[in-house]
Design a protein that fits this description.
By secondary structure, the protein is an alpha/beta fold. 31% of the residues lie in helices and 20% in strands. The chain has one domain: Rossmann fold, CATH 3.40.50. Helix 2 links the parallel strand 1 and strand 2. The chain binds S-adenosylmethionine.
Amino acid sequence: MTESREKFYGRRKGKKLRSNRVRLVEDVLPQIRCPRGLPEDASRFKQIWLEVGFGSGEHLATQAAAHPDILMIGCEPFINGVAKLCQYVEEQSLKNVRIFDDDARLLLDALPDACLDRVFVLFADPWPKNRHAERRFIGQPNLDRLARLMKPGTELRLASDHPVLKRWMIGQMRIRPDFSWRLDKCHEWLHRPADWPPTRYEQKALHGRPIFLTFVRK
Ligand SMILES: C[S@@+](CC[C@H](N)C(=O)[O-])C[C@H]1O[C@@H](n2cnc3c(N)ncnc32)[C@H](O)[C@@H]1O
């Protein structure tokens, strides 16, 4: 098994955590922390979905509540976001959420082939400068990782509001022989499908109109 040694350029800490968030990180996170590999009880679930960079976790928590028979694994190194997802898990008594609180690539490299049934990378950091392009999560090295892990016929869902990242993601996906773009109707990409809960960054839409892209692992 290989291990990613690539540098992580994002933030791990933000504002000082309030005492309740500290409690959530100390009490709830250890109970739902995802190991570097499949969680021991993964086989109890019908499917496994993975979200990279869940931010504050609103999309992941909503999906988990709607699909209690699906194991939702979320990766997020930003501790303030991890604490917020722990709060949703506690408030809603979610039993199907596991958190990998580190760089997603470390988990991706440790998972077995064809174990994932859906992957979400929503409003990834845009890294808009050309010289930072290799920091964007959606790029050929991570698409190779996801292609290994996704079962045939499963969905990779991507979204962005940033003009540079939108163009980049489409360009990166179009050269993949192992993913096909599910684009049924003209302009469908401007509308979030009904089974796709909004995220905080979608609501902020700081950089422009969001697009919602679905690709299928061939
Ligand atoms: C712009 S925020 C979007 C958050 C959320 N998806 C949303 O739409 O509100 C991007 C998130 O991706 C996370 N991230 C960046 N690189 C990551 C990586 N290699 N593994 C896991 N998370 C990552 C960041 O910490 C950040 O929280």
